[in-house]
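User: two proteins, same treatment. go.

Assistant:
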Amino acid sequence: MNLVTTRTITATLTNDREGVVRELDSLGRSGSKIWNVARWTISRIWDHTGEIPDEGPLKSYMKTQGYWKDLNAQSSQAIVEELSGAFQSWFQQDDPDANPPGYRKHGDQRPRSTITFKEDGFKLDTKHQQVRLSKGKNLKDGWADFVLCEYDTGPDASLAGVEDVQQVRAVWADDHWELHFVCNVAINVPDPPGEKTAGVDLGICNTAVVSVGDETLLYPGNALKEDVHYFRQKEYDTEGENGPSQTAEWARAKKSRRQTHVLHAVSKDIVDQCAERGVGTIAVGHPKKIREDEDWGRHGNKRLHDWAFETLIEQVEYKAEERGIDVERVDESELATSISCCECGTKADSHRVERGLYVCSACGLVANSDLNAAENMRVTVTPNPSQDRSNGCLAQLSVRLFDKQTGRVAPQEQVRP
C-alpha cells in the first residue's frame, strides 16, 4: 500500500561560496530585524492595552514597515507567525518564572534567523540540484532577484522523485547554512508485522515504558534530564540584562537539538522493538490535559514545560506508519491509567505506595507503576489479554538506555563502560 506523508529532507550547500553565503546572511539578518520590530510592536501594544495582539493585526501593521520588504512577502509572514506562536506558547504556560520571547540580538549584531520560503518564494530544479530562493524588494539588486543555491541531500535521501515540495527553509546551523525541504513523499507501507498490541506509557522520569504483555521495555529519561539541567543552568547563568545573551541562546538551541535527537532514537527503538515482537497496534497514552489539571508547583511546572510528549508521540506515529503499525492515542485523563489496577480495575491513589511501585489492595498485584499504566493502555485495544500478568512479569522490565557516545538506544548491559 502506498501512503503520502510529510517529510523534511535536509541538504547541504555545494556552492558554499562567499557570494551565496553573503546573500543568505543578508536574508537571515533581515529575518531577525523583522522579528525584533514585530517584538517591539507587541511590547508597545501590550503596555498600552494589556493585551497581546493577534497574528492578523500584527501582520497588517508590519506590512507598512520598511523592513517587511527585505524578504519575500510569505517569508516575512512566516517570521510573524513564528513570533505569534512563541508568545501563545509562553502565555499558555501560565508560569510566572517563564520569560516571554525576547529580541534576536548578539550584542550589537543581529543573528541569522531561519527563513521560510513558501510556494511563490522558491523554484526547484531537482535535475541539476538547484533551488532559487526569492529576495524581498529591498534586497534585489536589479539582475539578481533570487539566491541560487546548489544542494546535496546525501546518499540516504533524494528530491528526484518528490512531486510536492511545500516549503524550503534556509537554516543557520551554528557555522554554516543548510536547506530543509518540507515535502510530501509516497512511501510503500508493508503489511502489519503481527496482531499483538503494545501499550506505551510516557513520562518524565522514564521517557517511556512499553508492554507487549509477556515482555516489557523501560526507557529511562536520564539523558534528557541531564541535558535539561545542564543547559538550563548555562542559560540562566548567562542571561543578559536586555534579553538572552549569545551563550543563553546557544544553550537553548543546543538543548532543543539534543532533545530532538534523543526522542528520535527512542521512538525509533520503540517501533523497531514492537515490529520484532509482531505488534500490529500500539496504544500510547496521551496526557494532553496534564498541564491544565492542576498546579504542580514551581519545580513541577518547569518539568512539565520541558516534557515533549507530543513530539515523541508524533515521532512514534510516523515511524510506526512506515512499518504498517497502527497507533491509537489513549486519553489518560478519562481512564485514570496511573491509579487503575491493570489486573482487576480497582482505582485508588493509595495504590501508588512510593515512586515506581504500584500495589493493589484489592487483588494484591505488585507492579512497576509505569508498567501498570502501559498495561492499562494495552487493554483499551485488547480488552481480555491472555498474557502473563504475574507479579514477577509486571515488576521486572528490560532496560534500554540512550548511549550519548553512539547516539543510539541499546540494552542496558551493552552500554555499560
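Protein 2:
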Amino acid sequence: MKTPDLSSHHTVNLSPPALLALGFLGLIFIGSLLLMLPIAHQQEISWLDAIFTATSAVTITGLSVVNVGEAYTMFGQIIIMFLLQCGGLGFMTFAILAVMSLVPGMGLKQQVMAQESIGQTSLKKVSFTIKAVFLYSLFFEAIGTMILTLAWLQDYPLGDALFYAAFYSVSAFNNGGFSLFPNSLMSFSGQYLVTFTISMLYIIGGIGFLVLMDVKKHKRWSRLSTNSKLILSTILGLNLGAFILLWILEASNPQTLGILSLGDQALNAWFHATVPRSSGFNSLPLDQMTDASTLVTMILMFIGGGSLSTAGGIKVGTFIIVLISVISFLRREDEIRLFNHSISETTTFKALAVVCITAGLIIMGFMSLLILEPDHEFLDLLFETVSAACTVGLSRGVTEELQPASLIILMLLMYAGRLGPLTLAYFIATPKKSRLKHPLTEIQIG
C-alpha cells in the first residue's frame, strides 16, 4: 500500500484580480462579524449597519449610516481603524508582507503578482517598495498622532486625546474620512493646528508612495521621474485652483464661509479644496454650499489623488493623460508629450478605459438611486453616488435616510470603485495579441 505524501499540498491558482477582490471581501466579512459583537457597539445596530460600516472602512470611503463615535465602543472603533489601515495600504501589500515574514525569499510568481499590484516596473524593487509603503504609513501616522494629541490635550484627558489623535491620523492618512464626532470636523473649523495637520495627512497619503520614495531619494525637482513631476505639479495646481475658486464662491455664503473671519475663511477654503481628494472630512456643512461649489467638489472627487496612494477617483495621472491627449489631438501633434517624454498609446487607452469605467459606475449607481429614492433631491443623490464610486466619503447628509436597497447600491459602488481601476490594470498588464490582422475602416466621429 502506497503511503500518501503528507508534504504534498494543493494550491489554488487565483488571478491577481480575483485574489484582491476576495481579500477585500474577506476583510469586509470579518470586520462585519467583529462589529456585531456585543463589546463592539453600545447602541443597537443592524447587520446592514455593520456591513455598510465595514465596507466603507475597507474601501477607505468614509460614508456611514450611524454615528461612529456614539454607536461603537472603543473596541469597535479600533476595529474600524484596523479596517481603514488594511484598506488604505491594500490587501495585497499586507498579504505580501506576511509572506515575506514567513519565507526567506519570494517566488517569481509572487513577485510578478506583487509587481502588478503596486504598479512597480522592476521585480527587484517589489520587496523594497512594499516595506517602504508600510514604514511611510507608520511614520506619518505617528507624526500626526503626536501633533493632534498635543492639540487636543487642552480639551480632553490624555487618554482620550491620544486615542482621538491616533484614530484621526489613521483615518486621514488613509483618506478614510471616518470621524468620532457627529459633525465631522465642523467643531474644529477654527482650530488651525488640527485642521491643517489632518489636511496634510490626507494630502501626503493621496500623493502616492512611489512619489514619496522618489522625492526622498532624489530631493531635487530636476532629478524626479516624469511620473513624480506630473503627480506633484497636478495636485498642487488642482489644490490651489480649487482653493481660490471655492473661496470666491463661498465667501458671501452666510451658511459657510460668510460668517467666518478672513483667516478662518482661508483655512476652511483650503480644507474643502483639498478634502475631495478622497479624505471624506468636512469642516463646513456640505448641504449649505452653493451648487457651483458642489459641482467643483464632485469634479475633484472624480479626479482623486495619485496612483499607489490611499486616495480614490480616477487618479490625477489618468486625468492629465486624457487631458493632454485631447490637446495633442486638437493641435494635430503626432505624439503625446509630457515633460519632454512621449506617452505610449497603451497608457492613453488605459487612462481612457479607467475614465469610462468610473463614469459608467457613477451613471448606473445614480440611475438606481433615482429610481429607489424619488423623494430625495437630484443633486444630493448625484453627490452621494460620486462620493461612493470614487471612495471619497463626503455626503450632503442623506446617507442615513436612504432605504436598505439604496445602501446596498452604495456598498457595491464603494467596492467596485476601490477594485475597478486596479483590476483593469491587472488585465492590461498581460495583453492578448491576435495573429489576425483586420482591414482598416473609417468611423465618423463628432
